[in-house]
Amino acid sequence: MTYPDEQISLGDVEPIGASAAAKADQPPRGRRQLVALGVTASVLAGALVVSSLSRPEPAYQQGSPYQQGPVAGSRSAAAVGSESSSRRDVLARAALQRQQQALRAGARRGYVRSWDSKLAASRRRAATLYANLQALHATVRSTRYVATAVGGLPLQQQSRLGGDTWTAEVQLSWRLRGFDSSDALATLRYTFVQRGDDAYVVDIAAAPGARRPVWLLGPLVVRRDARTLVAATTPGDADRIDRRLHQAVVDVGSVVSDWRGGLVAYVPAGTEQLEAVLAATPGGYSHVAAVTTSVDGSHQVDAPVAIVINPAVLAGLSPVGAHVVITHESTHVATEAAAIDVPLWLAEGFADYVGVGSVEVPLSVSAGALVRDVRRNGLPDALPSDADFDTARGDTEVYYEQAWLAARLIAREHGEARLLAFYERVVANPDRVAPALRICLHTTRSALTAEWRTYLRAVVGAA
What we know:
By secondary structure, this protein is of the alpha+beta class.
């Protein structure tokens, strides 16, 4: 695991499980992807993805690098079941217990002492992680030693560390005090070394294919108050996003008036860290300004949620565009869109209704992609489908604007209160859109679609 300022050198440590490249070639697993915002290239320059990926589960099949017991005929599995492995497990669990006790007591010295003192890089890493957890007000609720990696580290690396060294999978649950009502689960790869009668931590990294917790990104700059928290890698990024979150609280609250929750944003240092936090395919977020997602990929409604910022892309947007992006993503947080299967035309349309509605942008600009598309291809026959928001298509901006204008039409014809009531009813029952249309708007999908097409024609004519 590489930090911006240092790397613990163990030589060419062989990867545990599938390589990062192999994992990257696999598509994200999950019930769906949400795509967020397509105000117009001239305002925002790029689509945004809200990705809700399923939480990775540890694999305990033959051939897995992590085994809980011996597999017949397997030389490596026999080694795992040996007395040496049992001793390692006992020592590692004791080291984890010392770490957790130190964190609960707020004892920095005790936490640092649970790390290997012979490696300066390990000592620095320990100090950084402790400082990050304290600044975030993060509570480590539990650590569970799952299994020792088959084979551990090569002898060459063990020799460099000067002791019996091994890697293991550890599952750690944590939450941010004041923001999270449930735990996030991190699946981590620990490296341990035995010194005398005790084991010490040498390194902590995300397990292959798992999301990297924000506190493993390197030294963090944290800004927090009662309703906003920003974890960034530079003071400038922390201050900029902090200001935007504060404004987003106001803008989202002006529409979703009963929302009393908070906003959490991560600002990784670059593409590698962004992809590590999301366990994403390399390059998949290169044009993405922000992502709203559950912290660990869970689909639980109360799962901790964060807005993950791509600072390079966001910096390329106009101030208006950046404002709309953050407000849009904050709307997803306030309405729990990262975990609930609301039809995307409604989820994205409503988020754009709040985001675009918070700024003064001419309709000819905010609907520019749609105007060009209708003039070229004619009016769409139906509201956008979920598949239309797949970023692989390359033309998602048009569908964002279609969805936004659907929400805008509902507010214009029925009032903002009825739009919100319709949206909240669908959030509560995502599979019952038709009854929500009838109860809240006294209409049907076909009637709404016809009205929407007429509205689009008027928008194009006025542009």
